Task: structure prediction
Amino acid sequence: MKQAYVSDRLNENEKIIRNTFDKCDDIIIRRFKAGADKNIDMLLVYTDNIVDTDVIEQSLMTNLMNRTDVIGENGSNILEILMSKAISVGEVDRENAFENIYTSILLGDTAVFAEGDSNALIISTKGWPTRGVPEAENEVVVQGPKDAFAESVSKNVVLMRRRIRDTALKVERSKIGRRSKTDIAVMYIDGIVRKDILDRVKKQLKNIDVDAIIDAGYIDQMTEKKWWSPFPQIQMTERPDKASAALLEGRVVVAVDNSPLVLMLPSTLNTFFQAAEDYYDRWEIMSFIRIIRYVAALMALILPGLYIAVTLYNPELLPAQVILKIAGSRLDVPFSTVIEVLIMEIAFELLREAGIRLPSPIGSTLGIVGGIVIGQAAVDAGFVGPVVVIISAVTGICTFVIPNQAMVNGIRLCKYVVIALSAVLGIFGLWIGVLLVIIHLCGIESFGIPYMYPYCSATENGFDDLKDSIVRMPLCMLKKRPIFASPDERIRRR
Result:
């Protein structure tokens, strides 16, 4: 489509704009006279309800119509004169391409045209409705900041600027989406970030060619190298303190407009098991909690499969009294152990999803009451044994220990692969399933960084990154930034 440009004839510009925004009742198009002598024909265009009307009325219309002393004949420099003498808004740009003007209007800016000038002024008048700074809902901490990101990319950038008051913190803005033209902000600390990682991020973002970006999850999925993997390759967070810490480690943060989440990349398996409050409390208790997270992840992956393998193929691995107890609890159960486990696992998944979709007070009640009622009813009816109910409950609780929901989802899917292999091959199948998951994780990389780092290639940073892995050493010992940072800026504490 041929690009259209602003004409020096106001009537022609008005005709083009009205044809473009035909049947768009929220687009305000107003023609008026400006100047002390009312000798300047002008046109004002903006989108209703997403602009700051006070700015338009007081800083723009009032000045243009009543407070300018511009006199003389209309000319090609009229907008330049108005910029210097009449418009009291901080951000004002000149533009002559209609496509860019339309984008600005739909984003909340105001376009001003003048007779005799082949340009338009784009005046920042954004004032769309937004919520204030909310509290974190998904990444709740006991000790630490409570604020969270909102849906405004500008507000999210400010929340990180508030924490990192450094001129080296760079913010590069661009738009993605042919129709949505969603604002994104690529943030990094110049000097700390690795140039190769930054270039990869920019290249991948530039290659995204899609109609619309509605949420940060779109960019997450479109920049993943192994899209078929159940495990996340880009970390997302709703916490400004966590994103700021990632910037200080040399990572790149991508904020997306209309999304309360930002992307932190690159990411490794270890980063998904780190929580914001890990660094706000003493290292002993936080190391203990991290160990619990890794153990919980392993149990969530193998526990149902282990129960199937032991009861069906290798009962000799358990004490005789335990085996007799399990066998006694299954006397009246009409289904095999595999079907029994699948029934409870699917029931738990249904309860989880129902609890998420319902309003918070009802959802929490449903999760507790529904789990108790269904579990007890299933045991009383003889469909499942009480041991399977315990196994499913413990497995579900283990998934809630992991601090990242995307990682939890990956483990939930792989769990069923382990169940299937355990049902066919017993303990041998269980180990095959675990090894397949580990091999898969070893084959993933995130923007050039191995997914299993620092459990592999730890020598790249002198094994220092192992100090912040399963065990979190005291802050005084974390003297180096991780491998994400530039080799010249690895030292953060001397």
Notes: Confidence is low (pLDDT under 50) at residues 71-75. Residues 10-123 form one domain. The two ends are 58 Å apart (CA to CA).
